[in-house]
Design goal:
The complex is a heterotrimer of chains A (273), B (110) and C (150). Chain A has 273 residues and is mainly alpha-helical. Chain A is built from 11 helices and 7 strands. Classes of the chains: A mainly alpha (273), B mainly beta (110), C alpha+beta (150). Strand 6 of chain B pairs antiparallel with strand 6 of chain C, so a sheet runs across the interface.
């Protein structure tokens, strides 16, 4: 508690320690509405493209016929393909692949946050299949297909009345606001305090709606990749220790960030720089 | 590599809008990658692998042909417009790469 | 405006425009030499055989001023110059400047869009062959090193 209070004093955005997740979300939304008043809140699901016209034009040109369409098709095939035991992903998730809006969620039995990627591997293992590499092509394709099918659905992450679930949320929130690395930045340093400012030649995107458009076709990767890979790169870039994809730290972080994006529409997969 | 050329054709009157997305790594042959061989890391050039020629025909007649290099982006797109196209016309597109591999598709315009 | 005029030797009394139209299709086979050329002078010489290349403001070369990523730069070329036959794209600072060459046959509207790679900031040139000669234009495209997204 005291640590959070100390952090609040040095940031532009005050972290209210007696807050609930819902009041956190309201506060963050108000903050961005005030800080970047000419951009409707929902537009921030497009990240820096909501803020930079020239970049937005290039992005729209990419989205006109994006290379991730091939990845979506591969994902569609993978979704249909039966496991060796004859079951399919539908056996775990239901017939419709439009499942992304409910992720991540708190699983009381397992005592952990379940992300879509983790759920996919748990489904595979429950059906005698090997887990997929979280940074691999197959996981990218499956999640791209699911994201595409889930487009336009409003994010609806729940935090049940369970102290353990709340603790996971708070842990993710603390991670977001915690300075780290040689450059001593927190996620909030760039994406809350300095959102809409320039960092070298880039405009910093607002830290609301960051999870809506994943997995992403990053021009830098020349491929579709997951949110946790971007977390790893962000940590590396401030010369902080990065965590493993689907580690508890990153799942809790995703839980917090996605809750902040509740009521925003899903718009993945998307093309990004 | 994905399996097919993606095409979006839209005819308005007798003008056809053609948008193509063609799966291909478009490796120029000048990029390097690090590989581990016998426990040691070495750098090697990724071999050139790119579309060399592209052709689009309407009812068997070439309307557009292109020569490309590895400096065209991965999974190339092409957008172009053809006049004099009617419903029922056949549009075929094909690429051939530097390894002699080809991919094509044929569509009947609505 | 293209400064090709100041940079290239201009030979007079050249390939007649009508001769271009009379050249049979197979003469337009992929010009390997031009693609291998590691500078624009050599690529242009190989492609256009010394034909006069005039700058023109009637070619619309649509490229971003600052490219988000050099791997994928959207390029749209259109022109209202009559009798368009070919469109050639060159990235001056690329190791091999000749990037793509399009031949537009009867029925094609004079416009083409594609995405190209740029190794770094460079002038991008669009050279068009028409029934009235060879014309060109260019634009500078900056390719930046990103901030945190780099």
């Amino acid at each position: 508690m005291r640590l959070l209070m100390t952090m609040a004093l040095c940031c532009g955005f005050a972290v209210n320690v007696s807050a609930t997740p819902e009041s956190d979300r309201e506060a963050l939304r108000s903050y961005f509405e005030k800080r970047i008043p000419n951009v409707p809140l929902e537009e921030h699901i497009n990240g820096a493209y909501a803020l930079d016209e020239a970049k937005r034009a290039q992005w729209l040109a990419m989205e006109d016929f994006p290379p991730y369409e091939f990845t979506i098709d591969e994902g569609a095939d993978l979704w249909e393909e039966a496991f060796d035991n004859g079951e399919t992903y539908a056996s775990c998730f239901g017939d419709s692949p439009a499942i992304k809006a409910g992720f991540p969620y708190w699983d009381a039995e397992q005592g952990q946050v379940i992300t879509l990627d983790l759920a996919i591997n748990q489904c595979r293992e429950a059906n005698g299949e090997e887990a997929l590499d979280y940074l691999g092509e197959e996981m990218a394709a499956l999640t791209a297909f699911i994201a595409y099918e889930s487009r336009d659905e409003l994010i609806a992450v729940e935090i049940p009345e369970d102290p353990a679930a709340l603790a996971a949320y708070e842990s993710g929130k603390a991670f977001y606001y915690q300075r780290r690395g040689q450059l001593n930045f927190s996620c909030s340093s760039c994406h809350v305090d300095m959102a809409n400012n320039m960092l070298r030649a880039e405009r910093l995107s607002a830290g609301i709606g960051h999870t809506t458009h994943w997995p992403v076709y990053r021009l830098k990767w020349n491929a579709v990749g997951p949110l946790h890979k971007r977390f790893m790169e962000c940590n590396d870039q401030v010369k902080a220790k990065s965590f493993a994809p689907q580690s508890e730290e990153y799942r809790n972080l995703e839980y917090f960030m996605t809750y902040m994006a509740n009521d925003l529409p899903l718009n993945g997969p998307a093309s990004r720089k | 590599m994905a399996e097919e050329i993606k095409a979006r054709f839209r005819r308005k009157g007798t003008t056809l809008t053609a948008k193509l997305l063609m799966p291909h790594p478009m490796e120029p042959g000048t990029r390097k990658e690090t590989v581990v061989e016998n426990g040691a890391e070495t750098e090697r050039l990724i071999p050139a692998h790119y579309i060399e020629t592209f052709t689009c025909k309407v009812n068997g007649r070439v309307v557009l042909d292109a020569d490309m290099s590895g400096s065209v982006s991965t999974d190339p797109i092409l957008t172009f417009y053809v006049d004099g196209v009617n419903a029922g016309d056949e549009v075929s597109v094909e690429w051939t790469d530097n390894k002699g591999e080809t991919m094509s598709r044929v569509d009947t315009i609505k | 405006m293209s400064n090709l005029l100041s940079r290239r030797r201009i030979l007079k009394g050249l390939v007649a425009a009508t001769a271009l139209m009379a050249i049979p299709f197979k003469a337009f086979a992929r010009n390997t030499e031009a693609f291998k050329a590691n500078n624009m002078d050599a690529a242009l010489a190989s492609l256009f055989n010394g034909a006069q290349i005039q700058p023109s403001d009637r070619i619309d070369l649509n490229v971003p001023e600052i490219a988000e990523d050099g791997r994928v730069v959207n390029v749209k070329v259109s022109t209202d110059l009559p009798g368009l036959q070919t469109v050639t794209l060159m990235v001056e600072a690329n190791p091999n400047p000749l990037t793509a060459r399009f031949r537009l046959h009867e029925g094609m509207q004079p416009e083409i869009t594609t995405r190209i790679k740029m190794g770094g900031s460079s002038n991008v040139h669009a050279i068009v062959e028409t029934s009235e000669g060879v014309f060109s234009t260019m634009k500078e495209v900056k390719v930046t090193l990103g901030g945190c997204g780099g």
